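User: Here's a structure from my thesis project, written as structure tokens. My advisor, Dr. K., wants to see whether a designed sequence matches the one we expressed. Can you design one independently, without my sequence as a hint?
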């Protein structure tokens, strides 16, 4: 049985295909269209999934959509009527779109599906799961656990914003929900907006900014904005927010409480924004801890699965891991709405079709999240040649050694191998790599390669067998969704003057043997690299370790600010030629920047809309 899962029409549209319970393929639409967070029907992603499965839509048994449009419309109408006449302008703008398109999503979906390969032979079976049921299914069903507590947290689905569930075998039951307008995800996004970042993409920036500040507003948040109970349930005072019926996230009362209007995008950051970021991060961590303790108590389970956009807050995940509430935690690598496509397909297989679930050797079924397109060597060479690239083909072991040498010399390397990752993180197949020992690498990558804010940290990839020697974390974190601190013996002692630095001035202080991946609070977003999951990346790390004694590399996504992660050899070459990346490796091909035609250089910095 084949099931095609879809998520669309809000942000991060995606498709996933499950065949007899096995995940065959999954990808976000943005990677194909080159439009960041593309919300449109995932035609290209769905076509890729069908191709990867060797079938067309006529050979698919069911299509599953990740939420129920009528329930979402019900929430929209009830909210507007409850708050009327407030929010009339928002209502006036939203209704034509809902009446014209979204209210009739079933027919829209069917029409779009008919245009896919084999669409004229499709049987018409279209299923709908609830939004948080899709998140929960994406968290539990691919997890390495036979039974587990399941926690989902995001902005909002239809009505639900937070759910607590229990999975066992092929059963997944939602036990408790928190409903709109009370939302941890929207609370965090309100501060994202107030600090001048874009909602649904800038939350990572807020998390990265938090260590530069002090949580001096945390008490203000808890005393005014939120009534947080011991079991993690909460109530938001809506006088401070405007997202329920307005066109902004926060209200004038919010401005008065925090001393002024929201920061304008691209305006210089001040200590206020840093302290606000630190404060909402601390409150978020406390909310997650309380919800987790209640999940443990309610289900009796010793392991936890997480999904929903809030589950991408790896700092909170790391704190939850260290708290020891659960023996083990597994986070869906595509925890946001893209992962809902996979969750919908798996929910249809296990819950609608009532098919059994088998966990093999305590391993997850995500295949390292390497579920996107790959390119054969001959196709890589043909595509690069057509783009005008000059390259050399090397034997894999020679290429690995050559790349490790370049990294050890301080060069930035674009690295494209195998299947593209599913989810927001590059995990060694669509990555820009660097030497973590370099005190200037973070600034180089941020300002001259990624073209993004200088304060944003980078993640370390580390050989799984060496992780405990470098970080206060001895476990698996293959999806870069756990944060741990650099071990004491690898840290550098700060001088009195360095300790006295405040805010963004802390950025240029090398804090450890691997300063390029050590945040100012000594933390790092860890990716453990496993030999059996990604041998080629593991071999590169091993080669770098042989040369330097360091089993760590800087790993950031292969793109610039506002650009989706590269998907094809052409995408990789364009990014290479538009940035200060010095080496590019695609499959077995090595490209040197100095060997390329200067005429192919491009102004890449302004090509994409800022995120």
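Assistant: Designed independently from the structure alone:
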């Amino acid at each position: 049985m084949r099931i095609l899962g879809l998520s669309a029409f809000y942000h991060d549209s995606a498709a996933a295909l499950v065949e007899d319970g096995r995940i065959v393929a999954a990808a976000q639409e943005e990677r194909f269209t080159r439009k960041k967070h593309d919300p449109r029907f995932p035609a290209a992603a769905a076509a890729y999934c069908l191709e990867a499965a060797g079938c067309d839509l006529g050979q698919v048994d069911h299509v599953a959509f990740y939420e129920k449009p009528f329930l979402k419309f019900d929430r929209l109408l009830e909210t507007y009527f409850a708050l009327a006449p407030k929010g009339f302008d928002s209502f006036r703008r939203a209704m034509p779109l809902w009446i014209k398109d979204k209210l009739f999503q079933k027919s829209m979906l069917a029409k779009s599906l008919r245009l896919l390969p084999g669409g004229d032979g499709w049987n018409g079976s279209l299923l709908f799961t609830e939004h948080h049921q899709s998140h929960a299914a994406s968290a539990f069903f691919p997890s390495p656990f036979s039974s587990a507590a399941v926690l989902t947290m995001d902005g909002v689905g239809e009505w639900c914003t937070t759910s607590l569930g229990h999975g066992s075998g092929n059963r997944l039951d939602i036990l408790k929900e928190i409903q709109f307008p009370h939302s941890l995800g929207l609370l965090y996004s309100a501060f994202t907006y107030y600090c001048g970042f874009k909602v649904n993409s800038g939350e990572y920036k807020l998390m990265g900014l938090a260590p530069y500040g002090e949580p001096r507003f945390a008490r203000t948040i808890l005393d005014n904005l939120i009534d947080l109970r011991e079991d993690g349930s909460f109530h938001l005072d809506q006088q401070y927010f405007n997202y329920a019926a307005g066109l902004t996230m926060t209200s004038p009362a919010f401005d008065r409480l925090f001393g002024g209007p929201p920061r304008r995008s691209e305006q210089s950051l001040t200590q206020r924004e840093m302290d606000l970021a630190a404060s909402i991060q601390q409150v978020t961590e406390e909310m997650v801890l309380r919800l987790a303790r209640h999940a443990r108590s309610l289900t009796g389970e010793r392991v936890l699965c997480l999904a929903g956009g809030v589950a991408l807050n790896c700092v909170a995940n790391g704190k939850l891991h260290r708290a020891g509430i659960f023996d083990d935690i597994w986070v869906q690598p595509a925890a946001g709405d893209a992962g809902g496509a996979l969750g919908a397909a798996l929910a249809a297989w296990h819950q609608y079709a009532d098919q059994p679930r088998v966990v093999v050797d305590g391993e997850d079924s995500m295949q390292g999240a390497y579920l996107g397109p790959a390119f054969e060597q001959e196709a890589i060479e043909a595509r690069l040649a057509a783009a005008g690239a000059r390259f050399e083909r090397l034997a894999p072991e020679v290429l690995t050694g050559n790349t490790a040498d370049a990294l050890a010399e301080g060069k930035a390397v674009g690295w494209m191998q195998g299947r593209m990752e599913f989810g927001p993180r590059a995990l060694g197949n669509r990555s820009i790599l660097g030497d973590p020992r370099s005190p200037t690498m973070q600034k180089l990558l941020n300002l001259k390669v990624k073209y993004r804010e200088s304060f944003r940290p980078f993640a370390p990839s580390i050989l799984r067998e060496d992780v405990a020697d470098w970080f206060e974390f001895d476990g698996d974190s293959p999806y870069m969704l756990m944060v741990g601190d650099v071990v004491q013996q690898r840290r550098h002692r700060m001088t009195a003057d360095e300790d006295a630095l405040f805010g963004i001035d802390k950025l240029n202080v090398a804090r450890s043997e691997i300063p390029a991946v050590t945040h100012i609070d000594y933390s790092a977003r860890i990716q453990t690299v496993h030999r059996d999951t990604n041998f080629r990346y593991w071999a590169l790390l091993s080669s770098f370790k042989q040369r330097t004694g360091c089993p760590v590399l800087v790993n950031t996504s292969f793109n610039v600010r506002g650009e989706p992660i590269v998907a094809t050899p052409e995408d990789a070459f364009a990014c290479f030629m538009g940035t200060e990346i010095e080496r590019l490796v695609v499959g077995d091909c090595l490209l040197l920047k100095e060997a390329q035609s200067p005429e192919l250089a491009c102004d890449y910095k302004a090509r994409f809309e800022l995120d």
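When you compare it with your expressed construct, this may help: The longest helix spans residues 271-299.
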